[in-house]
Design a protein that fits this description.
This protein is mainly beta. About 5% of the residues lie in helices and about 40% in strands. The strands form three sheets. It has an eight-stranded mixed sheet with strand order 5-4-8-2-1-12-15-14. Strands 6-7-3-11 form a four-stranded antiparallel sheet, with no helix packed on it.
Amino acid sequence: TYEIQLTADEPGVIHVAAMLPHTPARLRMSGNGAGQLSDGWATFVADLNLTDEAGSPIRVERDGRNAWRVEEGRSGAVRLTYSIDLAHDTVDWPGGIDGAALQLPWGAFFSGRAVFVVPEEASGPTRVAFRTSAGWDVAAPWSQVPGEAGVYEAPSPTSLTESYAFVGEHEAFT
């Protein structure tokens, strides 16, 4: 489960925390888009940390564009935390870019490719829990988990990293 914290109190930043059931060998972001940036989407990632179940840090090192290598010899569930800087408007994007995140006075629009760091070997569905300011709503393409407010389920890693969401003040039409 990924927990996305995005609030009006701290505009321009998304805080992400994820419980991963197994220690991955590598972590990655989508390879789609952000081609003009040498680090790709990882350009906007700050304070990436991985800890074991006891809270002990696990070494994580950059490993090329959009990727991180995880310390070998570890096993078991881990907690991944990091922040995303939404200052994508400071970058010169090519025409038609729809993957860049955008902070607005009334919320934020983003693609999964700009937010989610996932295990390289990820498969299957992933839950995403949104923690937002009062009065803010979530518009996401995934199914909402019954009985769990603000929790959605992406059916696959590709759906997680290649879909779009808006969090903020808006009116939904169906």
